[in-house]
Amino acid sequence: MNPRAAYLLAALSALLLVLPLVADSYLISLATLILYLAYTGQAWNLMMGFAGQLSLGHALYLGVGAYGAAALYHHFGIGPWAGMWLAIGLSVSLAASLGFLAFRYGISGVYFTLLTIAFAEFARIGFDHFNWVGGSGGLFLKVAQRDQIDIFNLRGTPVMFYYVMLALAAGAFALCAWCLQSRPGYYWRAIRENEEAAEALGIDALRWKMLAIVSSAAMTALAGVFWAFYYNNLFPEQIFSIGRSIEIILGPIIGGIGTLAGPILGAALLTLIADGATELVAALGWDVPGVKQLIYGIILFAVVVFLPQGIWPALARKLNLSK
Amino acid sequence: MSALLRLHNVSKTFRGLSAVTSVSLAVEPGAIVALIGPNGAGKTTLFNLVAGALRPDSGEIHFNGARIDGLRPDQVCGAGIGRTFQIVKPFAGLSVLDNVVVGALKRATGVAEAKRHGANIIAQLGLRPKGDWPASALTLPDQKRLEVARALATRPKLLLLDEVMAGLRPTECDEMVALFREINRREGLTILLVEHVMRAIMALADSVLVLHHGEVIAQDAPAQVVRNPAVLDCYLGEDTEL
C-alpha cells in the first residue's frame, strides 16, 4: 500500500475509534448509518465491482438475514450470535439458487439484474403474507433498557451498536482488501473484464461467480441481523423494497465501483450531504418533502456525468494516493 | 500413435452449414503445425472445438492420452492447452502484468509466484516497460503479444495461436517467430497456429495443414504445400511470392 494511503487509513481508524467519546447521540446515529452503508456497499461491490455481476435485489439478503435472526429471537429467545448463522444460511441458499439458475443457464447482463429484482420482490410479497413473522403488520423486537449493554443479545446503547457496525465495516474492508490481491480478486476481475478469455485461462467462471454472489449475500445478511436488532422493527414493505437495494448501491457507485475506499467515501458523502440538507431545509423553515431523495438524485446525476468512475479514483489521483 | 493432439472424424455444423467436416489430424509432441486455408474454411471453428469453446457434433478429440471433446474451456486449459483469440480479448481494465498474472495463477500456488512468472513472460514478449499500463492502452500488435503472454503464462503443453502475426510489421513478425522457435526448442512446447502471414509460416512451421470448406485437403512440409496445385487453386493463387 502507498504510505500516504496507509496514514490516511490509520487516521480514519483512530477517528472512528474515539468518535463516541466526543460525539453526541445524533452524530453517533449518523455515523452508525454511514458505517452500515459502507458495509453493505462493500458487500455489493464485491459482487458488482469485483466480479461484474449487477444485483439490484440486495434487499433480499438484507431482509432474509434480518427476519431470520429476529424470528429466532422473537419466538425462541435465541440470540443474534446464534441466529445469524440461520440468517446467513438462508441468504446464502437463496443467493446460491438465484446464482445457479442464472449462471448455469446463461442468464446474464440485464436479464440477470431483472432476476435479482424479481427474487427480492417475491420475498417482499411472500413476507407480507407470512404471518408467523407478523406479515405486513411487521415484526417487533422487545426494546430492552437502552442503558444496559447486553452484547450477547445485542441489546444496548447506541454506542454499542456503533462499535458493532464499526467492527463489521472494518472486517468487510479487510476481507475485500485481501480478496483484491489474492486469487479470488484476480479471477473475479478477469471474469468482469472478459468471461470468455477468463475461461480460456483456466477459470471456472460458474464456480467463481457463485462464490461472489454467495459471499456478497452472506455479508449482506449480517447487516440484516444488525438492522433487526438496531431498529427493533421489520416491515416487508421497508426491508425488501427496491429502494433499500438502491440505497445499498448508491454509495459504491458514487464513491467508485470496484475500489476499496469507494463504498466508504460514497456512504459518508451521501449521508452527510443528504442529512445536512435536510437539517438546513428544516432550519430555514421550508417544507420540502423528499429533499433527501432529491439530493441523492442530484449527486448521482453529477457523478455519472462528470466522474463516471466515481469520486474516489479521481480524488486518489489528486491526493497522490494511488500506487 | 504418440501424438499429443489427435482429432478423429471431427465435424461441426452451424444451422445446417457444415463448418468442419470429418477432420482427422494429429500433432506430434514438439511439432509446430500451421493451419491455413481461405476465409471461412473452418480454421477458427476447429480451434474452438479443440479449446472447448465449441462441442463437436461428432468425432473425438484426444489430448495427451485423454479424451477432451465435451470438456469446458477451463478444463481444456487445465489439461494443458493454451489459446489466443483472433479478435483480441484483453482484460481491458487490468494492467498488462495483471492480465498475465491471471493466466499464471493456473499453475502457481499463490499471487507472489504468479507475479514472478508473469513478469518473466512479459519480458520475453517485450512488454515489460508497459507492465503497469492498462491493457486498453496497448496498440493492437501489443494486444496480440499480450494474448500470447497470457496463454503462455498457463504453462501449456500445446499452444493454439489464432492469427497472432496479423498486423505486425515484418521485423516484429520475425521477432515473434524467433520467440516461438526459442520456446519450442527450450521447453518442447507444441504449437498449432492459424495464420495468413506466409512469411511466418515458412519460417516457423514443420508442417502445414490446408483446410478448405471444412475439410483437410493437404498436409505437408511448407515447401511442398506451396507447390501443391489444389492449395494454389483454392488459397494461395498461382503467383504467390514467398
Layout of strands and helices, then pairs:
The complex is a heterodimer of chains A (323) and B (242).
Chain A: H1 3-22, H2 25-50, H3 59-76, H4 80-104, H5 110-128, E1 139-140, H6 158-180, H7 183-193, H8 195-200, H9 205-231, E2 233-234, H10 236-239, H11 242-255, H12 262-283, H13 291-306, H14 311-318
Antiparallel strand pairs in A: 1-2
Chain B: E1 5-14, E2 17-27, E3 32-36, H1 43-51, E4 58-63, E5 66-67, H2 73-79, E6 81-83, H3 96-104, H4 111-124, H5 140-153, E7 158-162, H6 170-187, E8 190-194, H7 198-204, E9 207-212, E10 215-220, H8 222-225, H9 229-236
Parallel strand pairs in B: 3-8, 3-9, 6-7, 7-8
Antiparallel strand pairs in B: 1-2, 1-4, 4-5, 9-10
Helix pairs in contact in B: 3-4, 3-5, 4-5, 6-7
Describe this entry's structure for a reader:
The complex is a heterodimer of chains A (323) and B (242). With 323 residues, chain A is mainly α. Chain A has one domain: ABC transporter involved in vitamin B12 uptake, BtuC. In chain A, 74% of the residues lie in helices and 1% in strands. Chain A contains 14 helices and two strands, in the order H-H-H-H-H-E-H-H-H-H-E-H-H-H-H-H. Chain A has a two-stranded antiparallel ribbon. With 242 residues, chain B is an alpha/beta fold. Chain B has two domains: 5-80 and 156-236, Rossmann fold, CATH 3.40.50; 94-153, no CATH class. Chain B is 37% helix and 24% strand. Chain B contains nine helices and ten strands. Chain B has a six-stranded mixed sheet, sandwiched between helices. The chains are: A mainly alpha (323), B alpha/beta (242). The A-B interface holds A 181-183, 186-187, 189-190, 192-194, 196-205, 258 and B 51, 53, 72-74, 77-78, 82-83, 85, 89-94, 98, 101-103, 105-106, 110-111, 114, 150-151, 153-154.
